[in-house]
């Protein structure tokens, strides 16, 4: 294995897009940012220099960070922000990981433009568990706001109002249709007839779940969140923010130009938007004026399609890549997730929209939880995060009489190497809505999912403990539940939150504190000397 060095200089760049110009934060002047390439078991050293005008951190989304929690990156969870003029070196090893992941800023909404791909190839001489593709292409889905994102979100927080939805969706940085603006430039995927391509698709958007399609072509899904899956054929990919999907596409047409579409999935009762990002797949050496072949775009509320897609995913579970599902459970947890309201004097309607896990709206601390844990600094967090919700919810029923949340900076403590089953239940405090939840530091197995209220007896019987899909970001279905299992074999503090940034901002977040073990390689090493201070 090798050591790969990268230099990420965060700087402002004036970008012209969607018929407007503005300064955006970028890494090395690029949007999307540079791709980080490595091989399984390599060590990656990224020196991040902040030459922009805003605090930030970088997170390596889906990287296990075994005993390298100081390099994980969420602001105020594992580190203080890197201030303008400062730098920090992220140093981590990609132990037993290969596939597609993403990196992104993890402070406020900076990740709107500060994100990029992580491509981890298998070890030398180790083949893919699927036919070797002719070529590989990375496709990053994102969003574009015409106004300054930080100013917009700060104002909406102050007023307790929902932030604006984006003005356009992007494919590899190129917007699709923007009302009132005819954009000429777009992304084109050039292919050769008869060849098979591996698409590494990444959803780096802040607040959009996407359907992804290519007219007249289908996908064979072979990997999600850097875990191999049983090959599964589909003509529509569903992908939530933070998720990655590797799909084989066979270029089986002799000629032509085909529409590629990333259209939003939206089940919230507010802010429906119909913006679809478009790009083209084009066969090489075919006439420039070939007619475009179009595709049907799923309506934004196609919940059935999202459930069908996610329910079809299974881990490969082969001899080489077994699914190591924990069969016995030490911690049996039940968390409700949802959006509610709290009183707010300065807000427009006297209330502020908040979100919570087990009715706790997580307040960000002043210094990072990991530093406070490591150095025993008191008064930063409490470890009384509840294992169960404080009152009974019903997803179909009326909102509970008390729809106010409590505030706190609470963690849930796990013994080293203990096993966890966590059922996440969507609640309808305001209205049901799906939530793509991300757990830092672990891959989890999705042993069950369903609609309605989780039934601890009946639903438990149906759990898949053989070949459940392994992910780092998993959707709690609209008005339903998801059950995950993982082994707490990584000491540190690990953030769990909705990857729709709007819900994270409102407080849909908590953290697990995994204690050190007794063995020689079972504790968190001391922080690097350049760890930023608050
Ligand atoms: Cu990709 Cu905590 O985020």
UniProtKB/TrEMBL annotation:
* Protein name, UniProt field: Laccase
The question of whether Glycoprotein is a record keyword is answered with: yes
What cofactor is needed? Answer: Cu cation
Chief localization? secreted
Which EC number(s) does UniProt give?
A: 1.10.3.2
* Similarity field: Belongs to the multicopper oxidase family.
Cellular component GO terms held in the UniProt record: apoplast
By its UniProt entry, which InterPro entries does this protein fall under?
Cu-oxidase-like_N, Cu-oxidase_2nd, Cu-oxidase_C, Cu-oxidase_fam, Cu_oxidase_CS, Cu_oxidase_Cu_BS, Cupredoxin, CuRO_1_LCC
**By its UniProt entry, which Gene3D superfamilies does this protein fall under?**
Cupredoxins - blue copper proteins (2.60.40.420)
Per the UniProt record, the source organism is Cucumis sativus
Q: Where is the Plastocyanin-like domain?
A: 18-123, 137-284, 385-517
- Say what the protein does: Lignin degradation and detoxification of lignin-derived products.
Q: Which GO terms describe its molecular function?
A: copper ion binding; hydroquinone:oxygen oxidoreductase activity; oxidoreductase activity
What are the entry keywords? Apoplast, Copper, Glycoprotein, Lignin degradation, Metal-binding, Oxidoreductase, Repeat, Secreted, Signal
């Amino acid at each position: 294995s090798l050591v790969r060095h990268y230099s990420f200089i965060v700087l402002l760049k004036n970008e012209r897009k969607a018929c407007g110009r503005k300064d955006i934060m970028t890494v090395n002047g690029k949007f999307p940012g540079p791709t980080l390439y490595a091989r399984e078991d390599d060590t990656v050293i990224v020196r991040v220099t902040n030459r922009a005008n805003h605090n930030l951190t970088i997170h390596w989304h889906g990287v296990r960070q075994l005993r390298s929690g100081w390099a994980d990156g969420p602001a105020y969870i594992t580190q203080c922000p890197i201030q303008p003029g400062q730098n920090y070196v992220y140093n981590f090893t990609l132990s037993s990981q290969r596939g597609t992941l993403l990196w992104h800023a993890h402070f406020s909404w900076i990740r709107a433009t500060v994100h990029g791909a992580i491509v981890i190839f298998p070890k030398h001489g180790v083949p893919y568990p699927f036919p070797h593709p002719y070529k590989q292409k990375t496709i990053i889905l994102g969003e574009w706001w015409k106004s300054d994102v930080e100013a917009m979100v700060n104002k909406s927080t102050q007023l307790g109002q929902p932030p604006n939805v984006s003005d356009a969706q992007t494919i590899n940085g190129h917007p699709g249709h923007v009302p009132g603006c005819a954009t000429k430039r777009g992304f084109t995927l050039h292919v050769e007839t008869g060849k098979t391509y591996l698409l590494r698709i990444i959803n780096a958007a802040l607040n959009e779940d996407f359907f992804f399609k290519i007219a007249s072509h289908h996908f064979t899904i072979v990997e999600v969140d850097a875990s191999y899956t049983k090959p599964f054929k589909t003509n529509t990919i569903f992908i939530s923010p933070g998720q990655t999907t590797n799909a084989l596409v066979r270029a089986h047409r002799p000629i032509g130009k085909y529409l590629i579409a990333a259209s939003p999935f939206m089940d919230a009762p507010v802010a429906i938007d119909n913006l679809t990002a478009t790009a083209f797949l084009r066969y090489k050496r075919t006439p420039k004026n070939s007619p475009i072949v179009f595709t049907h775009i799923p309506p934004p509320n196609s919940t059935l399609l999202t459930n069908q897609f996610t329910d079809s995913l299974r881990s490969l579970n082969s001899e080489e890549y077994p699914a190591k599902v924990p069969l016995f459970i030490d911690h049996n947890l039940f968390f409700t997730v949802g959006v509610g309201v709290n009183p707010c004097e300065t807000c427009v309607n006297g209330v502020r929209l908040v979100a919570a896990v087990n009715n706790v709206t997580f307040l960000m601390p002043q210094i990072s939880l990991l530093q406070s844990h490591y150095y025993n600094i008191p008064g930063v967090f409490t470890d009384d995060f509840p294992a169960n919700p404080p009152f009974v919810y019903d997803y179909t029923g009326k909102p509970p009489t008390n729809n106010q949340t409590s505030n706190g900076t609470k963690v849930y403590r796990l013994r080293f190497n203990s096993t966890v089953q966590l059922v996440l239940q969507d609640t309808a405090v305001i209205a049901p809505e799906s939530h793509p939840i991300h757990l830092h530091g672990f891959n989890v197995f999705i042993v069950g999912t369903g609609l309605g209220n989780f039934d601890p007896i009946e639903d438990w019987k149906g759990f898949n403990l053989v070949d459940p899909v392994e992910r780092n970001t998993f959707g709690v279905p609209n008005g339903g539940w998801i059950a995950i299992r993982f082994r707490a074999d990584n000491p540190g503090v690990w953030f769990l939150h909705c990857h729709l940034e709007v819900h994270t901002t409102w407080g849909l977040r908590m953290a697990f504190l995994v204690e050190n073990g007794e063995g020689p390689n079972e504790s968190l090493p001391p922080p690097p000397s350049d760890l930023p201070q608050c």
